[in-house]
Amino acid sequence: MGSINILLIEDNPGDVELTREGLINFGKLNNQLDVVTDGEEALNYLYKRGVYFNINSPDIILLDLNLPKIDGREVLKAIKQDDTLGKIPVVVLSSSEAATDIQHAYNLHANCFITKPVQLDDFIKVIQMIEHFWIEIVRLPMKGD
User: Fold this and answer.
1) pTM of the full predicted structure?
2) In a domain, 57, yes or no
3) CA atoms of 91 and 113, how far apart (whole Å)
4) What is the three-class DSSP state of 96?
């Protein structure tokens, strides 16, 4: 498999850097990581509006729930209600452990829900496991399918 486009929707700069570090250190594949920091920017990216008119659509989305401007739950809902975007796997990566958040994410058709570990090393390991599972093991749909 060639390069995978990963969209990280995350407003915490520390978590963005840890995610980037986890992907770089695992680094078996030459993956493209794009980052947007709020829900409004995420929807602009996904619908290729404004400065994002020429981007490649992501193969997988890592989504934080608690985002400024437009909440991550609304972003997830918009993604999964769209015929084209709905095929993209969405991994909810949240600091929440609340049963209601987990249930709501699955009700909105998240592909999985992962609570962010507090310890830095554990966070990086989780990112590497996400990459390993979703990029090396899972077969993703071809673009345009």
Assistant:
1) 0.90
2) yes
3) 6
4) coil
